[in-house]
Structure formats: structure tokens, C-alpha cells
Specification:
By secondary structure, the protein is an alpha+beta fold. It has one helix spanning 91-105; strands at 5-9, 21-27, 40-47, 56-58, 68-70, 75-78, 82-88. Strands 1, 2, 3, 4, 5, 6 and 7 form a seven-stranded antiparallel β-sheet that branches. The longest helix is centred in the last third of the chain and has 15 residues, at 91-105.
């Protein structure tokens, strides 16, 4: 498990109809801060539709999943609720993701 990996998170989705959310979460926490004993990890959700937010990251056709990463909705989840990984962001997407994460936190 490492920063930029994409996992499936299905705990909060009782209904999938007309839901803009996807079951995918992108790992925010770097791998060196995630020993096996750590049960909590920071993630950013992936949504299907353009959220019209400057800090959202569009996923390209070369990324493992499609949609938009919501950098403004980073949260901590219980690690056992994640399954995967289903893929990893491309290096180009990770660079934009990191830039937008910094912007969301007011860091430059």
C-alpha cells in the first residue's frame, strides 16, 4: 500500500443507482508511514462526474480507473475496509494529484 495506489472501498455505498461516487479510493499516505500494524490510512475518493472544483484531478485513459479524484475530500479510513489494489495512478497523474493536495492544504 503506497501513495498513488487505487483501492476499492465499499463500506458506505448502500445504493449504487444515480450515485456520483465510485467505490475507488486513492491512497494519500506514503508507504513508509504505513507499517502493517497501522490500521488507518488517508485516502481521496474518486467520483464519476466532474465536480467542477479547481482541486479535483481528472483521471486519464491510462490510469487504472476513470473519474475525478476529490483532493478536497481527503479522509481517514480503516485499512481492512480497503481491498486491492486495483491499480496505480500514472506518474503524470500523481504529479497533478500531489500539486492539488498541496493547494487544498494551503501549501506551496
Amino acid at each position: 500500500m503506497n501513495h498513488g495506489d487505487i483501492y476499492t472501498f465499499d463500506r458506505e455505498r448502500p445504493s449504487r443507482e444515480a450515485d456520483e461516487r465510485t467505490p475507488y479510493r486513492v491512497i494519500v499516505t506514503p508507504g513508509y508511514l504505513l507499517p502493517e500494524s497501522e490500521n488507518w490510512v488517508m485516502v481521496a475518493p474518486v467520483e464519476q462526474l466532474d465536480p467542477d472544483r479547481l482541486v479535483a484531478v481528472p483521471l486519464s485513459d491510462t490510469d487504472a480507473v476513470q473519474g475525478w479524484i476529490r483532493c478536497d475530500r481527503v479522509t481517514t479510513v480503516y485499512r481492512p475496509w480497503l481491498s486491492g489494489p486495483v491499480g496505480r495512478l500514472t506518474d503524470e497523474t500523481i504529479a497533478v494529484f500531489d500539486e492539488r493536495l498541496k493547494a487544498t492544504q494551503g501549501l506551496e
